[in-house]
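Input set for joint prediction.
Command: fold jointly, output tokens.
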Amino acid sequence: MPTRICILALLAAGLGGGPAFAYTAYVSNEKGNSITVVDTETKEVVKTVDVGQRPRGITLSHDGKFLYLCASDDDTVEVIDTSTLEIVGSLPSGPDPELFVLSPDGKRLYVANEDDNLVTVIDIENKKVLSEIPVGVEPEGMGISPDGKTLVNTSETTSMAHFIDTETHEVTDNVLVDTRPRYAEFTPDGSQVWVSAEVGGTVSVIDNAKREVVKTISFAIQGLRAETIQPVGVAISADGKKAYVALGPANHVAVIDTKTYEVLKYILVGQRVWHLAFTPDQKTLISTNGNSNDITFIDTATDEPVESVTVGKEPWGVVVSPN
Amino acid sequence: MASRKPALAQEEVRYSMTGRWIAAVFLGVFTLTVNGGAGVAVGQEQAAATAGATAKTEKPASEIGIGYLRAYAPQLTLSLLDQPPGDNGIAGAKVAIDDNNTTGKFLNQHFRLDIAEIKPSDDPVAAFNELVAKGNRYIVADLSAKQLLAIADLARDKGVLIFNIGASDDRLREEDCRINVFHVAPTRSMLADGLAQYLMWKRWPKWVLIYGSHDNDHLYADALRRAADRFGAEIVAEKEFKDTGTARRTDTGVTQIQKQISTFTQGFPEYDVMLVADESEVFGTYVPFRTWMPRPVAGTAGLVPSSWHPASEQWAGIQMQSRFLKITGRRMLSRDMEAWTAVRTVGEAATRAKGTDFETIDAYLRSDKFSVAAFKGQKLTFRPWNLQLRQPIFLGDDRSVISTSPQEGYLHQVSELDTLGVDQPETKCTLK
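tokens >
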């Protein structure tokens, strides 16, 4: 079976250090004021790079040449050259940038300004603010539809998903979700947005055409108090079949069948799991575990944790480059 | 009551898109818009004020008036650091009104805060009536238990909900509970239980209790005794510290008090922790590091249980802290958090129930659907039998949060938060 072969290949790569699956993962360490660069094949830390204060949201330009990093307490987005790992510039993010999303054409960065109840739209090439869009209290989650036309921001205290037209920069719809929504992720076909609610303990599935919640997914892990289940990061596989949800202090990642909305499995990772990222080949999912200061590699064929690697202090975000 | 001076400051606070406060201050002059029966005003001018935010909506925003009634007088404390700021609590309410209005602009809802201030010895009825006459059917009350009871039934008859943030007295949730009074502040028994769980988890079960001679100190001591009983601790000795009236910072008695602590705490049987019950600020602050035996101190001094801590950054608390600091220029205290939570409670009900009329909000607040988030790691709900807000209790010293209760392992069939304070089977409350 092809999957078996994949597992063997992965194991072989892990043990033997073969050439396959050589990607680079970049992890932002919220309290370490650094990013950790990890080779996904050897699962070893390649380098630790000092950056601005309270680095959280992290993403890559589509060509993999630049890293964009929210240095929240420095009120800026730092631009890091991935070939030299040096900070080569910054973008005018507005105050306290927490999380952002890159437009599919790679030209615009949409930033959530947590302290100011704004979403800032940045023209990356000209380093200019194109617009500031007022949203709810404590904006955080940022999702963009695959066609780039719809931006979704979640505001934590307001508990809404704000749908924003990227042409007009206007809020067109506000969908009430459960308490403290943290993350918004579109399905690959653009038909749905999945929004996690940290204190509500749920994931709301919003129909992008109707702009309504069509399903609310709850979680239960035996032996854990319900209050410890606090969904944060969401990652949906490229084929659209499985969704992974980081459950915060529950120390698990839930695997959900996107058709039936059933939770298939809970994967034990590190403490206080925040965010998730796939490797480009989709074979591995990486979780950042804020309290145990490590990241966990998950094999997506078996949905088993493979290995955890210590990174910096309070790892928050992660992104994986094809190079 | 008739001799009560006009409120010190009557403020109308409105949200503006720039995030700054526009405050019109009326000194002793009351606004002319008096709303009759229904109480919930639909203010045209407020709609204009938020027109920028609701440009696409034609209808004027529905307005929800929240009154804030507090008894206040500057107070001396044993430590300068403990002197409450003049806007303690009010600042939290203002930040929450701001938050409610940011959310409200998406739902065409607008929130207004009216503040009235009286003295701790005043009868609150006149000030209460004025707030209600201005259309406020939700009153955040930073009052003593006695003052709160003086307006509770009047409020019920007028169809007004009170949110208690000032009085931690258990009796307000028990024999003196009311159907129209929600309690956002934790009770003394919740605070004491939160502390007791931690001390037991540390395996420090032998306590000495020293308490002040004022009524509130006795109530705090009662709560600690109850907590000892409940969680299996042993109070091996007790002693009252009598307030002889020469204890304040402003006279030379201060030196004597500090020197007295060592001998005052001499001669107790072997114990693990010294518990202090001194809400009246007579001696408590002086106890840590002055005890006869080298022992940790907890209660109203040392390790203190509270509803918030100015250094809490867990559970997104850092966001609340930095937002509060940015707007007010100071750190957020427990009273601020209680006021913030009270105002957010009304806002959250209006958001979730999608309505601004009193009946809709009242029904939603009482339903099992209601919950509010307040940076404490889990949703907070009201105990339906006495309308007390369930909440974790912070345990901190003057610099940092040491722990948060309930402690792991204290289980409960309904909510672990119900291991704190008087639980349903023991309640003396009949809501009426």
